[in-house]
Amino acid sequence: MSVDSRDSSYRYVPVDGFNPNSATGWTSFGNVSQCLYDKGDGIFTLTGTGSGGNQPPELKIYLLGPAAFRVRFNPQNDYSMDGSFAVVNKDLGAPAVIILQNDSVKLSVDLGSLRLDVLFQPFTVQVYWKSHLISTDVAPGLIYVANGGNAVANFKTYPANANYFGAGEKGGNDLRLNEAALTFFNYDNFKYCGQNTDDPPAPNGDGFLRVIPYNSNYNDPTVQPGPLNWSEPLYNSIPFFLEDNPNPLDLGGHPTGVPYAYGILLDNESQSYMNFGASSSYNGNMYGKYFFGALYGEIDYYFMAGDAAPDVLRQYSTLVGPAALAPMWALGNHQGCYGYYDQGRVLNAIQQYRASNIPLDGMHIDVDFQNNYRTFTASQMKFPNGGADCFSQAAAMGVKCSTNITGIVTIQPLDENGNATPYSVLESGLAINAFVQDNRAEGQGPAYPKPFVTNESYGVNYGFNPYPSPGAPYNPGPGTALGTYGYYADLGQLQFRDWWGEQYKPLLDAGLEMVWQDMTDPATQPSVCDSAPYKTLPLNVLMFDYTQNKMVPSAEIHNVFALNLISATHTGMIRLRIAAGVD
User: Fold this and answer.
1) How far is residue 14's CA from residue 226's CA, in Å, rounded to a whole number?
2) pTM tops 0.85, yes or no
3) What distances in angstroms separate CA 3 from CA 435, 442, 452, 525, one per listed residue?
4) Are residues 252 and 297 in the same domain?
5) Helix (H) or strand (E) holding 310
6) By residue range, what is the domain housing residue 264?
C-alpha cells in the first residue's frame, strides 16, 4: 500500500507560501542582552531576549578575514556541531581585529578592510566599507518560527542603484535578480515549466502538486509556467548572490563616490528562498529591502565584501573551493541524444560529424547503454564487451565517450534477455544496507524495514527503439514504458559514497572517459511506496546528515543529494584511476 506524502507536514512550499514579511507566526531575535567574545577563536556569542517564555535565543558571529564574517543562528541554540556540505575553507585572510566598542549599545569591530557594527536595540547587523554604510538589517530583521515550525529568515536593505546577481541556475527575464522571488529546491523541471495548479491523484491525474504561484495574467510569461518565471525551481541550488553597487548614495541621496560589492552565501541545505524587493499579495510590500531564509535549519550566512565583484568572488572561491581546471577537450563540441540505442547509431553519428568536417570532442550515451536499466552495466546486446568496442572505436576517431549514470539502482530481476540474473551492484548495496530505508519522520513506510522503492521514468517507446525492455513498468497508454523501479543509496553516509564510487570500475576498465551524472534531484515518479507529489524522494523519508551525525527528514537536507552523489562519483573515479595507474 502506497503512502500519500501530500498528507505529510514535510512539503515543498512555493514562493507564495513562504511569507516572513507578514510577521504572523514569526519571532524576532529581539534586543541583545549579552555579548561575549572568544578572542582565541574570533567568535562573538550574542544572547537575544526571546519571547513567549522560550529560552532566550543565541547566535554567533565569526570573524573570517579582513573583509569577511559569518553569522550563524540556530533557533534551538544547538552549536555542538559545525559541519557544512559546501564550505571547505573558512580562512579568508587574517583579520586585523580592533574592537572599537562593545557596551550596552552596540558591538563595533574593525576587521581591517570593513567595519562590522552590531546594534543591540534591536539586534541589527551593519557593514561599513571605507566608512560608508553598505549593508544593514532592516525590520523585521532576523526572525524565526519559535512555535510549531522551523523556518528562519533575515531582512536587509535594498539600496538605490544596487544590482543583484547570482543564485546559480535560475529562470527569469533578466540576468539581474532585482524584483525577483526565488526558491532553491532541486527539482526535475526538465521542461523549465513547473505547474501552477494541483493535479488530482491517479487514476484521474498524475498527482503532482503545483510548484509556482498561480497567476491569471496569461499574457505575462514572467508569471506563467516557463523559463522566464523566476520562481521556477530548477535542477540545482546555489544560494549565493552578489550585491553590486557602482554608484551608491548616502542617506541624503548624494553619491558617495565609493562603489562596492558584497556576496552572501546562505549555507542551508533545505528548501530556501530569496526575495529581492519583489512586492506581491503574498510577500507584501518589499520596497527597499530583501530577504533570504529557509524552511528548516539555521540562518548561517557568510558575508564577503570588496571594491568590486571580482574581490568578492575570490573570497567565495576560497570559501567553497575553486572549480577544477577543465581539460581542453571538455570545452569542445559535444553531442548527446536519448535514442542512440546501440553502438552502430553512436559510431555512425561520430562518422557523420567527421564526414561533414564538424568538430566533435565528446559523445554522451544515455541509459540505452545499460543492460535493462541496470546502473553501472553495459548492454551486451547493444554495446558488446562492456562498451569497450564502442569506446575504442570512438577514441580512434578522436572522440571521448560518457554514459548516463542516474542515482537509482534497479530492483528489476530480469536482464535484457528476459532472464533472472544476478546484479552485483544491487546485491553489494543490500549487503551493506546502503539504501534509503522506507522510514518516515511520522512513522514507518509500507516497505519498512526494506528500502524505499522508487519509480524512475525514462519516457515511452512508441516503436522507435527496436530493443526489448523485459519487465517494463505498467503503461496504461500506447507504447512501452521505459524506466525502472529501484533503490537510492543514502549518500549522506561516507562509507556508502565509497561503495558508490567503486561501482565505476568495469566502465573505466572498458575505456569510459567521462560520466554523465543524471537525474540528480533525485528525479522520481509515484511508486508503490509513495505518491511522490513533487517528483522527488518524499520529504519525510529519513536520511543521514553527516553534518549533524544523525538521521533527519530528507526535507532538511534535500538540496545536497546531488552534491553527495557527484562527490561520491568524483572521489571514486580518482581512486580508481590512481589504482589503475592512469593518473
Assistant:
1) 15
2) yes
3) 19, 11, 11, 13
4) yes
5) helix 309-320
6) 12-183+230-320
